Amino acid sequence: MSNAWPKERLGEVLNRSTETTIISPDSEYHEITVKLWGKGVVPRGVVSGAEIAGSRRFVAKTGQFILSRIDARNGATGIVPPMLDGAVVTNDFPLFDLNQLKLNAGFFGWLTKTHDFVELCKRASEGTTNRVRLQEDRFLNLEIPLPPLAEQRRIAARIEALAAKISEAHSLRQRAVQEAEALTHSTIAKLAYETVWEKKGSQKLLR
Question: pTM value?
């Protein structure tokens, strides 16, 4: 994170969401999990209300920031994607609305994947072994360098473009490996076939 940018308290750009829903035993609900080390906010599965303990859950919305109280110090943070709009979470996964006058979701999503941001989460976490949890008040009092919105959008666009190129290169590499493996297997199979049948043919001629 650049030290040249002005700093802003997280509490000035993140507002805790308190929207909840009453759980109906007869309804189905999508649940969320947040992967470690910035690997994404992904579906955990679909469960019936009868399987959910308690009568209420917090409701996630597209573009919100979410973190795991237990594993934020291990990079379990991210932005809720459109596919998980309306999913439910427990209080162990607090949700935050972004102050869109100051913070761009794309920029913040990439920022949360950085080593420096994970270090902030570690500083906001406390407890004994296996019981370390992020303390929300402490977290929201921490500061991040924050460029103007226009610069945030520009940075996010550049990173997205680079990520797309890397993904494309990775896909091309995988495809090349698959084609090479298929060609190798085909060549070996052809060689084995010809060797076996040529050998059989030679044996017939010798009889």
Answer: 0.79
